[in-house]
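For the sake of transparency, this paper describes our internal protein records without simplification. The record that follows is passed on verbatim for readers who wish to inspect the format:
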Amino acid sequence: MEEELYKMILVDDEDEVRGRISSKISEETGFSIVGTAGNGYDALELIEKHSPHVVLSDIKMPFIDGIELARIIKRDFPTIRVAFITGYDEFDYAREAIELKVSGYLTKPLTQNDISRFLTKLKIDLDREFKEKYNMEILKARYESSLPMVIDNYFTSCLVSSQSGRGEDIENLKKHGISLDDSDYLLSFIKIERRESYWDVIEFEKLKLSVRSVINSILERHTFDHYSFMFSDGIVILVKEKGKFFLRDIDSVYYEMVKMTEKFLSVQIDMGVSNLHREFSQLYMAYEEAGKAIGYSKFLNTGRIVYINQLENSKPKVLSLKENDIKNIEYNVKFGSERELRNVIESLRLSAVKDSETITNYRPYIINMMNVIVNFSDSIGADLTEIIGGDIFQKMVQFSSMEQLFDWVQSVLIRLRELNLKTKMSNSQKLLDSAVKYIHSHYRDPGISMETVCEDLGISISYMSLLFKKHKETTFVKYLTSVRIEKAKELLKLTGDRIVEIAGQCGFNDVYYFSHCFKKYMGLSPKKYREEKNTP
């Protein structure tokens, strides 16, 4: 089988340097240049297009330098390696590069031997990384040596044992040096996409081991104190709080987990995340929160990382119907077809008819069924009074038979199902609209970023990125730039302000970068645009 070449993007503001380096990188080195760029902004577009393995960038460049480009890549594309070309020996650059953990350096002037040595070392590192990530047996061995199975069993027992039986398991975990009493922690429950190739139980368990190993390696690299164990059909991760910006930092790490498993294992994962908790006594509560978050992820359209504190404020109430019946109703209203929903209600109807003989004995069941409807309508923000055409309690006392009850319940649930299909998109659209409104109100601020918008709206960066890609078919940065350029067009046509002043009014600190963006967006410079629009 022919070895696949590693894809590389070359970034340098000097055409001559880009050409010289490109000419010295042949297929025999194991690398292929898939794109070149003269500045960091063009490089980011190429990265989105080609998904390279390596970005080789000059440190000194216009608009954004190599250090800032590396920061963006590490944040938004954590699987990509970054290496630097530099003719500068300043301590500040070296220190920042070390902090970013770059994969190597090429020092100008460049020779064939320098480039060959650099590529040989980089290829060895990449080969080792890919071998570890793709080799299931290596991943399994790493897992078995790092976390003994007995610890997994104790953690699992903590979640399935009765309250009285958990004390012994907790003591055993403490004897193994595991404590949840010294700091707050987040619990994440991870569900793994199960494709046809993993229907076999053993193959799927191997896949879970691989996902767990990748996740553990990421947390270890970011020096988070954590524990993980298999549970039910997924993986439980406990991460201890660390640092002032823990919640922001761990969101970035969760996003890296999603992208790493997708890149190296070709599998998608969903994560439900609890509130912060402390002590073993709150472990089960944290697990329930994470499970609830992931259970509503598709229903609430919140992306692959779902935080319980970002769900609707109205929480489902405790119901008296059998738990399996409740889950069956909710699942089919959310995800089932109308026929499947009718079948569920018909099954409940037959069971209720069999167990109940008079309306008097059946009234508690009516109240329980009403709770199902009320809680579900609250969870999707529906106006139940409008849907049923009146007060639910008045409707409740009108039924004189079980047949009437189930006919009515079925019709209401079908209407709620139809409404849910429409509101799946509306919830995310409201958040996107808020983000767009924020951009239009703050585009003049040169400091505006996806982080500031997410902090203002209280959502994660990964979800914001999903919203812009899904609904706008663009990125946050591109949309912000388009808004600024449209405002600049108005000012160029309607005012006599200098171009440097217009750049500042539209959020650009650098007039040269403003001109670069404007020309890229419009196909001509700001000066030329003004001349054409003002020509009689």
